[in-house]
Amino acid sequence: MGVQIWTREQVGARILAGETLVVLGDKLIRVPDSWLNSHPGGTLAILHFVGRDASDEVEAFHSEETLRRMRGYQIGVVQTGKDGWEPLVPPVMSGWVRRVGPDGKGHWHNEASAVQSEDPSRIMLIGADSAQSLAGPTLDTLQPAPSTLMPQLSSRHSAAYKELHKRVKEAGLYQARYITGYGPEVLRYTLLAAVCAIAYSKGWLIISAISLGLLWHQLTFTAHDLGHLGVTHNWTTDRLFAIFITDLVGGISIGWWANNHNTHHCNDPDIQHLPFFAISPVFFNSLWSSYYKRVMTFDFFSKLFISVQHKLFYVILALARFNLYVNSYAYLAKTAFEAPRAKGGRWWWWSEVFALTLFYCWYGAVLQGCGSWTNILTYLLISNIVASPVHVQIVLSHFSRSTEDLGVGESFAARQLRTTVDVICPPSIEFIHGGLHLQVTHHMFPRLPRHNLRAASVLVKEFAEEQGLEYAEFGFVDGNSEVRGVLRDVAHQVKIVGMVADSNIREHMHSE
Questions:
Q1: How far is the C-alpha of 160 from the C-alpha of 267, rounded, in Å?
Q2: Alpha carbon of 62 to those of 73, 85, 316: distances in Å?
Q3: Is 44:260 a contact under the CB 8 Å cutoff?
Q4: How far is Cα 399 from Cα 479, in angstroms, rounded to an integer?
Q5: Per-residue model confidence as pLDDT tens digits over 121-167
Q6: What is the SS3 assignment for 359-385?
Q7: What is the pTM of this model?
Q8: CA-based R_g, the chain, Å
């Protein structure tokens, strides 16, 4: 029996019937529910590519071994035109998800409804009315809206990206530099830990707290590598190291970070942090995010903070680590009873809870040993605030760039280059940024070891120039100014919206 050939209509019909189908080149992959629910990268990373050609994204995020395993789920090939596969809109992006009903079978559930957008290629969602009863998505729901993107251009970018990825592999840039890369970093970690402990023993609490904050700041970069499987490239090994560094030493859940970061790398257009930050006025409408599964509520507190966000920028980021603690523990509480995952089973959860318990034992003892409540609060704030520059760095690489969703037809490479920017930094001091100032290349190749990003960025710049795409970069000072400018513009729009609303109210009152 030959390989079954699937038409676009047949693929759409099977998706509407509840199957999770993803296209890889010309191969049609059926993702079983068991794999979907236990996917190490989370279900949303898959659901946002249902009906789309995810070959570039899948190859960027997965090892050769995983790619071979995926081919075992192939159920046929798809009919493609000269510009490749014509994508469908994943149901989740229109507010539709599958849930198990009282009868034990899967049914479509409408968690959000589409609203009119000025940009027809972008689907804007609001929380669905719980009282409404809809049968499910239709073939029309899966059809992309008209877009200015040219399919032939996206196809060309995709083909060129595959060649670029091949060059990166052939250059050996996926090989981690354990001695020349991580060697100096381990020495740096050891020195900071030693200074922290010695200063604490002598009662120099400020110096100790600063050293601990710097240690957390530097460890963040290695934890980032481990979360991307960029150190040993083995999930179990990298995750165990990550739990030690992130949970036990830093008090933050690596499971939460990896889950959230995978969503970030999907290049979600919801890169907002309400109620504290908004970089687009589109979120003044309290939209539903299919990436974060919640309403980005624009309420009184949001209006208050957003109206002065450019002034509070550094204050909020200085305290951002406390938000990471909250999100970490909320995530672990939420996943306490979920089914075992394909990688890590349930031991990952218990390991994190155990490691976090040890963190609060040692960090609690350190704080208690400070003596007075004033000293405790001082040590707590300094150690956490000193670790905050990493938040500024990551924000610079995204907040000044486009957050528009140009539709499902945009190529992976073009989307990364459009939404990300590098921070220019001399090699001599790039250890301060941990190498992650090269965010463009990191987003193009997420699993690439951090110490090889500079060499890879040369290839990416050549690719961008050949394809007529922008490779954006700015200095640290200019980047700060540009991001604060974006925040200021949105803050002014909040004030304008408020003044218009007040004027309408007064006009209505005078007319009565």
A1: 20
A2: 15, 21, 35
A3: no
A4: 10
A5: 455 566 655 445 467 899 999 999 888 888 899 999 999 999 999 99
A6: HHHHHHHHHHCCCCHHHHHHHHHHHHH
A7: 0.88
A8: 24
